[in-house]
Write a structure and sequence with these properties.
Largest sheet: 2 strands, parallel
Radius of gyration: 16 Å
Structural class: mainly alpha
Helix content: 10-25%
Number of strands: 2
Strand order of the largest sheet: 1-2
Oligomer: single chain
């Protein structure tokens, strides 16, 4: 889905003759934990796949290099709302990892 959205935006910009604009993803991901009724919320669907995708330089044929920034490093255990709203990032508030990632920062 990530690749499809990038290609969609890239071709929309080209259609409007904005061929030199750089696409930059500033926030993306999927929560790693949520309520039982939030069936798609789990570590397997979390942003670890997006990070691996970007680190492997496997963009799309139309846009092979894409800049992606991590929105936040720590889960927000005091944020109001659903459980999934508090679990979007790489570390718990106590600085332990949400899941293992082999990445160089």
């Amino acid at each position: 889905m990530f690749d499809a959205q990038i290609v969609e935006h890239y071709f929309a910009l080209m259609t409007l003759n904005f061929r030199t604009l750089k696409i930059m993803v500033t926030e993306s991901g999927c929560p790693s934990k949520g309520l039982a009724k939030e069936t798609s919320v789990n570590p397997d669907n979390a942003q670890k796949y997006l990070i691996r995708h970007v680190l492997n330089n496997t963009g799309t044929p139309a846009k092979p290099e894409i800049d992606v920034y991590i929105f936040s490093l720590f889960n927000e255990n005091r944020k109001p709302g659903l459980e999934s709203e508090r679990n979007w990032v790489l570390f718990y508030p106590d600085m332990t990892s949400v899941y293992n990632l082999d990445m160089i920062v």
